[in-house]
Amino acid sequence: MDLIIIGGGPIGIACGLEAQKQGLTYLILEKGPIVNSLFNYPVNMQFFSSSERLEIDNIPFISKEAKPKRSESLEYYRRIVTANQLHIRLFEEVTAVLHEEAAFRVETDKDTYLAGQVIIATGFYDLPNLLGVPGEGLPKVSHYYKDPHFYASQKLAVVGASNSAVDAALECWRKGAEVTMIVRGHEIGQRVKYWVRPDIINRISEGSITAYYNSSVREIRERELVVDTPEGSLTLPNDFVLALTGYRPNFAFLEKAGIRLSRDEKRLPEYDPETMETNVSGLYLAGVICGGMETHKWFIENSREHAKRIVDHIVLKTSNRSPVA
Questions:
Q1: 73: in domain
Q2: Which of 223, 243, 263 is at the close of a domain?
Q3: How many CA atoms lie within 13 A of 17 on its CB side?
Q4: Which candidate in 19, 71, 191, 195 could, as Cys together with 26 as Cys, close a disulfide (CB 3.0–4.6 Å)?
Q5: Model-level pTM?
Q6: Total structural domains in the chain?
Q7: What span, in angstroms and rounded, lies between the C-alpha atoms of 312 and 315?
């Protein structure tokens, strides 16, 4: 086969569409359902981007509001996969990418495949940034937020001040949770959605939601939470903790595939920005995975072009014909 695409998110789907258009034999491998990361977003999540910025391959995305909801995005990308009969295998996790003499051997938890080229488009939503404190492994702690109903009438601590943390705090408070936010910095994050940031600031100002700034979690206990604040250590009654402190790409997977990463805290993978080919010939990166720890740099809207860039390069490398315009 010409190409294996690892990751069935929006960018992986875009790569599959482009490969199909260019006449390449390909397969998309996805460890969960179609657009697995989006499926695991909060049920009420609304995108920062407008629907046209989430479109791939110029396929119109029609939503009720300018900024679509999670449910609308799931339907949009699912319909693209089914209507175009993309070759995709779901609930099959890639465990290794091995560069052999004439091809790549891609191993999964179910099978092994050979392909001339490989695209890694796995995103960054699978590995949370851990707090690294005692009690983080308790069942009451989660690094993913799904539905506010679960936290109704509970004492909930939300760790973080990004979009995910702010959305969770507001939604859970509106469902009757007693919400406390633990914020490492001195304010709510500047990149929080512009129509949401004033809302959380006002709820904190009026006392509906408690926020501890310049603070961090020291320990999580069965019924309590120990927080270090500028005024000293506090022990707070607590039922649940949402540690929404961000996520990171699977760097170990990239390194195992032979991709070089920068040695600084950004952990930037090495690739050619014109072709998206890494230091391993025939192995490409697409989407947010390109940003290393700078996960805020790449989105669907500014990385969807990676698909054509990569497939055009593959076509030029492997045949004498020109890429499809």
A1: yes
A2: 243
A3: 25
A4: 19
A5: 0.87
A6: 2
A7: 5
